[in-house]
Design brief:
This protein is mostly helical. It has helices at about 15-35, 45-50, 60-75, 115-140, 145-170; strands at about 10-15, 85-90, 100-110. About 60% of the residues lie in helices and about 10% in strands.
């Protein structure tokens, strides 16, 4: 009987809240700027709404969308999670130095999952989270742009899911004498 043992290693995928917020704001500003240039079809108020994605109470909505994306990604990465994931969405100690905000997935992956695969997973996770927020935000503020971001979100999800599924199957292939 031919048996194969799979060796594993631990790694972490991290998404900084500040980086996510910066990219979300940056994309929204660019879209708002493009809307501003097209004054025939969009009002200055609509441009202002699009650009204010990370302002004031809008952050609450963005945080909820990020949290939903985080939980969805947690489910997708579940076969490789080796311990409880970190999730710091708000400071635990008001008035003191805030805890670093962000998301982290601690994974236990087979050796066949290379550093390049992990880097790609990290990129897809990050891009998925940004696209999920922008798809939700633009659906409210700029419906004409929302479909582009929904498509990006779905593509990032599909690419990550396919890669995770491929490596999960390799790691858990049952042994057979045939």
């Amino acid at each position: 009987m031919n048996t194969t043992t799979t060796t594993f290693r631990q790694t972490t995928i991290r998404c900084s809240y500040d980086s996510l917020a910066y990219d979300i704001s940056n994309y929204a500003y660019i879209v708002g700027d493009a809307m501003h240039d097209d004054t025939a079809s969009h009002s200055p108020h609509a441009t202002h709404l699009v650009r204010d994605v990370m302002e004031g109470q809008n952050r609450d909505r963005i945080d909820r969308v990020l949290d939903n994306a985080y939980h969805r990604l947690r489910g997708l990465l579940m076969p490789f999670l080796c311990q409880e994931v970190e999730h710091h969405s708000a400071p635990d100690n008001p008035g003191q130095q805030p805890v670093a905000r962000g998301y982290a997935w601690h994974l236990k992956v087979p050796q066949s999952v290379t550093a390049a695969h992990i880097d790609r997973w990290g990129t897809e996770v990050y891009e998925y989270m940004v696209a999920a927020v922008l798809a939700d935000w633009f659906e409210v503020c700029a419906p004409s742009v929302a479909q582009v971001w929904k498509s990006r979100r779905d593509t990032d999800w599909r690419l990550l899911a396919e890669s995770v599924k491929l490596h999960n199957r390799r790691a858990h292939t049952s042994l057979s004498p045939f």
